[in-house]
Design brief:
By secondary structure, this protein is mainly alpha-helical. It has one domain. Helix content is about 80%, strand content about 0%. A two-stranded parallel sheet has the order 1-2. Helix 2 runs antiparallel to helix 3. The longest helix has about 55 residues. The chain is globular. The two termini are about 20 Å apart. Keywords: Membrane, Transmembrane, Transmembrane helix.
């Protein structure tokens, strides 16, 4: 257990793993405040506006997570830490990052609501009014997608560590092909309406927490399988 915790703490030595996603989010918020503030100063409508800028922290976390399977992996394994221990420590770091970020995002949502959307009726941190009002559903709705995006980045990092950019390009091409074949199948069977209808009928918590959690677990398993063969 101590080795797992040590592996998790190893990632904290690179403060960029935490700082960069939040710096990107802060930049996105600043841009949105300036943009909508200038628009309203120019006479634009003051109706509530959802920006979608929140996704910036998730994308940045995914990109940052690529380093989790590269920067410290060889160092940790060469000093006697098992691959399994390193991966469990990485998973512990990812869980902490996801939960900590979710709590901060929920706190920022509270400030946003209390200030009337930062004084601009801006909806930046609100994912959907139906479930962000309840912390028991809001926190997982913030945390699990973060965990999913980190898992995507970690898998790409493991692939890059083992096969280099050739593996990254191949994995991306495979993902595009699978998505494309799925789209062709839905088009051929004229099942797009049923597909979107099924998603529309799913509970919000399942869409933002349930299914992403399953996907994150599968991605984590893939990262483990790839990293087992990575030489230190």
């Amino acid at each position: 257990m101590n080795r797992v915790v040590s592996a998790a703490r190893l990632h904290l030595l690179s403060y960029q793993n935490v700082a960069i996603p939040w710096a990107v989010l802060a930049s996105a918020l600043a841009v949105n405040l300036l943009l909508f503030g200038s628009m309203q100063a120019g006479g634009a409508s003051e109706e509530a506006a959802f920006t979608g800028g929140l996704v910036s922290i998730y994308i940045a976390a995914s990109v940052s997570a690529v380093q989790l399977m590269n920067k410290h992996f060889d160092f940790a394994v060469s000093f006697g830490l098992s691959r399994r221990g390193y991966l469990l420590g990485t998973a512990l770091f990812a869980l902490g990052m996801a939960l900590g970020s979710a709590l901060l995002l929920y706190a920022l949502l509270g400030i946003e609501l209390a200030t009337g959307g930062w004084g601009l009726e801006l909806e930046f941190f609100g994912v959907a009014e139906l479930f962000t009002a309840n912390p028991l559903t809001a926190v997982p709705s913030y945390a699990v997608p973060m965990l999913f995006f980190i898992a995507v980045g970690a898998l790409y990092g493991a692939i890059n560590h083992r096969w280099g950019m050739t593996g990254v390009y191949a994995a991306t091409l495979l993902a595009v092909l699978v998505g494309g074949l799925g789209a062709v199948l839905l088009t051929y069977t004229k099942a797009w309406a049923s597909f979107f209808g099924w998603w529309a009928d799913q509970p919000h918590l399942a869409l933002l927490a349930g299914y992403p959690l399953i996907a994150a677990a599968l991605l984590g398993a893939g990262t483990y399988l790839v990293s087992r063969r990575v030489g230190a």
